[in-house]
Amino acid sequence: MKELNLPRFKFKVKESDHGTDIWDEFRKKYVALTPEEWVRQHFLKFLSENLGYPKSLLKSEFEIKYNRMRKRPDIVAYSNQGQPLLVVECKAPEVSISNETFSQATVYNQVLKAKFVVITNGLQHFCCEQSIETGTFQFLEKIPAYKDYMNLSNGV
């Protein structure tokens, strides 16, 4: 798989009848190792190991409903209070980040109402704070660490 603009992590991979699988420690199962999955697994580890998001508060590839349609956000990080904090949309490295990619993530966020939206293809990462009331974005220079958000939300 392609080298990403993220720290290197060790993963358990195995060959199966349909190709290569990677162990997803968050979903507790092996999943097909696609380029997008490679990005998703790296970003999950980046959030937990580098930015301090508790593994128990990270959820990956689960179903939500938006206007009767079933959608599957790539990654959602929750606060200690169980509120969605960060929505991450992952794309394969060869997929350019576009307005369409941002639109996809904001659709998820209309349901989840997280404070932050992150878009990544493993090479480029964009993070913005979204105002749910106005739908506007403010791009941030970096993805907030979990402790930074918790300090802000506690008024420290």
Fold and architecture overview:
By secondary structure, the protein is of the alpha+beta class. It has a single domain (13-153), classed as Alpha-Beta Complex (tt1808, chain A). Helix content is 24%, strand content 31%. The chain has helices at residues 35-50, 99-112, 146-153; strands spanning 13-16, 19-24, 29-32, 58-60, 64-66, 69-71, 75-78, 84-90, 116-120, 125-130, 137-140. The strands form three sheets. Strands 4-7-8-9-10-11 form a six-stranded mixed β-sheet. Strands 1-2-3 form a three-stranded antiparallel β-sheet, with helices on one face. It has a two-stranded antiparallel ribbon with strand order 5-6. The longest helix is centred in the first third of the chain and has 16 residues, at 35-50. The model has no long low-confidence stretch (mean pLDDT 88).
Summary tags:
11 strands, 156 residues, 6-stranded mixed beta sheet
By CATH, the topology is: tt1808, chain A
CATH class: Alpha Beta
Mean pLDDT: 88
What's the story with the biggest beta sheet?
6 strands, mixed
Q: Overall 3D geometry?
A: globular
Q: Widest sheet: strand order? A: 4-7-8-9-10-11
What sequence of helices (H) and strands (E) makes up the elements?
Answer: EEEHEEEEEHEEEH
Topology at a glance:
Elements: E1 13-16, E2 19-24, E3 29-32, H1 35-50, E4 58-60, E5 64-66, E6 69-71, E7 75-78, E8 84-90, H2 99-112, E9 116-120, E10 125-130, E11 137-140, H3 146-153
Parallel strand pairs: 8-9
Antiparallel strand pairs: 1-2, 2-3, 4-7, 5-6, 7-8, 9-10, 10-11
